[in-house]
């Protein structure tokens, strides 16, 4: 029987990193579940939920990933999980939201509070500073689950909040 695990790889970003990690996990017969990858400054972060075959130890997976080329300055962690790798309804994305404006403290906190008021769940979030002529542009993207009966009110409140923060607001419904 396979065991559930959380695999994290954090280190310098480089081309081919995902291919190397995913390829080695495939060779080990590790089944990837939900997976994320992000470049954060000069650092890359690969995180996934996985099913690891019973005959392979968690430390073996760590050792195999650490043995890949270019992993010298990388932190690799493989942790066993009791939780499953399939998410509940609130883990499905119903809306994608993007906000753009000048960088200022508290943007993510304010927007996150609005989602909480409407029982929404942030499934994924990405924020980045984009250098500009006058001030850095701050772009925040959310992939969220919003209860259907509260979606219109939540989106209207987010649009108002974006206006108060002098940010642009864009949303789209995800068919699924």
Tell me briefly what this model is:
The protein has helices at residues 17-27, 58-66, 107-117, 151-164; strands at residues 3-12, 31-40, 43-52, 75-80, 95-102, 121-130, 137-145, 167-173. The protein has 176 residues and is α+β, with helices and mostly antiparallel strands. The strands form 2 sheets. The chain has a 4-stranded antiparallel sheet with strand order 2-3-1-4, covered by helices on one side.
Structural description of this entry:
With 176 residues, the chain is α+β, with helices and mostly antiparallel strands. The chain has 2 domains: 3-80, 2-Layer Sandwich (Alpha-Beta Plaits), CATH 3.30.70; 89-173, Alpha-Beta Plaits, CATH 3.30.70.260. 26% of the residues lie in helices and 40% in strands. The chain has 4 helices and 8 strands. The strands form 2 sheets. The chain has a 4-stranded antiparallel beta sheet with strand order 2-3-1-4, covered by helices on one side. Strands 6-7-5-8 form a 4-stranded antiparallel beta sheet, covered by helices on one side. A hairpin with a 2-residue loop joins strand 2 (31-40) and strand 3 (43-52). Helix 3 runs antiparallel to helix 4. It is flat and about 55 Å long. The chain starts with a strand and ends with a strand. The relative contact order is 0.17.
